């Protein structure tokens, strides 16, 4: 029996694993590194770092239960049929893929397997993306009714425990994890990731337990405040399936607002399943003619946290250092890129894909389109976040900005989110010289907003 693991790198509450074990046959768990089939959506640098450590943790967990994790490199459509023949597998158990490229690849795997049966299980979501439809029998395009339909129509069973033992399979050759070269070489940019995260199923369970104990009760009030430890930070564990949505759903039962975040993840997968061009093309057709700007210098300043807008720079530096960014700040930095700078949302999506440890194709695409105003349930394009007001509202004491933009740490709260408003003597007392210690803003916020609104108005006239 072949257990094909892809984005369900866990032993507890893993329907594919449980189904394989239910056959009573020996199980060979395999992870295949396919770097060709995903094309532009192969794992980025931060995801590769996480994957290395997640696979190492999974291999240890399997070994403790008597099984060996087999590692193979190559195209799914070639490696899986070859390995099934090698071990004489009559069946394969795997998770249901949601990414368009993976769905196409699975069809090629099935064609190459011949009589060998591929059983796919819902390992990554609470619902199958075809399960929920509107009264008009169409896919949902608005989050709120989707969330209500899932709550009302999808029963979420209790999570299953991890098996104590796995029947060992036949000896099978395996690549070494080190040979895959998933970790960064020189320069080693992953120090901040190592200090922040513990990849693997045990790390996921520990983080969930800490969140439920220390932060769940205050989630509604604190979730938008990046200066506090008020969110679960489970997203990277979700991304590689180190924790199941059923486990998180039931653990978060005391806070429906937290459960909404699980539902947004489900909604994004629903959107991608029914709109396979979501990562590349706007859902709203009129945005195909949006007059985006080519601005390499502006994009570079945004990527490096050197825009001169403190809350934006803090978020981008948090991303660079830790591979993660607070969700409220993700919306702020995304709005700044696509609206104040008028740079295409796909450029931001690509940067996030490479730098986020929680990079997820559905969530990344759906969230960027939401901010850009061109997706399902999208924020209106004329809703342009003012990053200064957002900073003052959600980081009122400047704790978040001071943590990631330390050159502004000595500024008083009143101007830490807009240092260009500070009197010269205040800047001097704080040791800040704009243009030297910290950049001037790359765009005038009022002018950038007006430019964005003019572009949107042009789209509406063309339509």
What topology does this entry show?
Layout lengths: L1 E4 L9 H8 L5 E6 L11 H20 L5 E4 L2 H12 L3 E5 L4 H14 L3 E5 L21 H11 L37 H6 L4 H14 L4 H4 L12 H5 L5 H7 L4 H19 L21 H9 L5 H13 L4 H14 L4 H11 L5 H12 L14 H8 L4 H6 L19 H6 L15 H18 L1
Parallel strand pairs: 1-2, 1-4, 2-3, 4-5
Helix pairs in contact: 3-4, 5-11, 11-16, 13-14, 14-16, 15-16
- CATH class of the largest domain, anyone? Mainly Alpha
Helical stretch tally: 20
CATH homology group of the largest domain: DNA Cyclobutane Dipyrimidine Photolyase, subunit A, domain 3
The low-pLDDT segments are: none
- What is the number of beta strands? 5
β content, as a range? 5-15%
CATH 2nd-level architecture of the largest domain: Orthogonal Bundle
Main β-sheet description: 5 strands, parallel
Report the span from N to C terminus: 55 Å
User: Which strand order spans the largest sheet, edge to edge or round the barrel?
Assistant: 3-2-1-4-5
Report helical residue fraction. 40-55%
What does this structure look like?
This protein is mostly helical and 463 residues long. The chain has three domains: 123 residues, HUPs (Rossmann fold), CATH 3.40.50; 107 residues, Serine Threonine Protein Phosphatase 5, Tetratricopeptide repeat, CATH 1.25.40; 178 residues, Orthogonal Bundle (DNA Cyclobutane Dipyrimidine Photolyase, subunit A, domain 3). Helix content is 47%, strand content 5%. It is built from 20 helices and five strands. A five-stranded parallel beta sheet has the order 3-2-1-4-5, sandwiched between helices. Strand 1, helix 1 and strand 2 form a beta-alpha-beta unit. Helix 5 crosses helix 11 and helix 11 packs across helix 16. The model has no long low-confidence stretch (mean pLDDT 96).
């Amino acid at each position: 029996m072949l257990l094909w693991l892809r984005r369900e790198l866990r032993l507890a509450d893993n329907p594919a694993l449980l189904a394989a074990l239910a056959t009573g046959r020996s199980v060979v768990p395999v992870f295949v590194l396919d770097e060709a089939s995903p094309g532009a959506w192969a794992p980025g640098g931060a995801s590769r770092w996480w994957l290395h450590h997640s696979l190492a943790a999974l291999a240890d967990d399997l070994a403790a239960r008597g099984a060996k994790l087999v590692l193979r490199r190559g195209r799914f459509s070639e490696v899986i049929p070859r390995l099934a023949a090698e071990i004489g597998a009559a069946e394969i158990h795997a998770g249901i893929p949601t990414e368009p490229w993976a769905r196409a690849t699975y069809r090629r795997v099935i064609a190459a397997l011949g009589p060998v049966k591929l059983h796919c299980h819902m390992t990554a979501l609470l619902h199958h993306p075809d399960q929920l439809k509107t009264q008009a029998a169409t896919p949902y395009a608005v989050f709120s009714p989707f969330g209500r339909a899932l709550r009302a129509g999808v029963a979420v069973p209790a999570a299953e425990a991890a098996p104590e033992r796995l029947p060992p399979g036949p000896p099978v050759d395996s690549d070494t994890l080190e040979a895959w070269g998933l970790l960064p070489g020189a320069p080693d940019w992953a120090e901040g990731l190592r200090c922040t995260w513990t990849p693997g199923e045990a790390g996921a369970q520990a983080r969930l337990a800490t969140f439920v104990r220390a932060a769940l009760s205050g989630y509604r009030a604190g979730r938008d405040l990046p200066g506090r430890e008020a969110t679960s930070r489970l997203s990277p564990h979700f991304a590689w399936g180190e924790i199941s949505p059923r486990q998180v759903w039931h653990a978060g039962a005391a806070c429906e607002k937290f459960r909404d975040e699980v539902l947004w993840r489900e909604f994004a997968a629903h959107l991608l399943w029914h709109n396979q061009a979501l990562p590349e093309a706007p859902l709203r057709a009129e945005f195909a003619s949006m007059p985006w700007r080519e601005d390499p210098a502006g994009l570079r300043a945004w990527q490096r946290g050197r825009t001169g807008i403190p809350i934006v720079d803090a978020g981008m530096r948090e991303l660079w250092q830790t591979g993660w960014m607070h969700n409220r700040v993700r919306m702020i930095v995304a709005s700044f890129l696509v609206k104040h700078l008028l740079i295409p949302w796909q450029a931001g999506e690509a940067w996030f894909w490479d730098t986020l440890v929680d990079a997820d194709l559905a969530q990344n695409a759906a969230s960027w389109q939401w901010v850009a105003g061109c997706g399902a349930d999208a924020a209106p394009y004329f809703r342009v976040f003012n990053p200064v007001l957002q900073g003052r509202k959600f980081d009122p004491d400047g704790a978040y900005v001071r943590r990631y933009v330390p050159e502004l740490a000595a500024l008083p709260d009143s101007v830490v989110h807009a240092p260009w408003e500070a009197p010269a003597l205040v800047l001097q007392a704080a040791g800040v010289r704009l243009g030297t210690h910290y950049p001037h803003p790359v765009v005038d916020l009022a002018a950038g907003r007006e430019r964005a609104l003019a572009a949107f108005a042009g789209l509406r006239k063309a339509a």
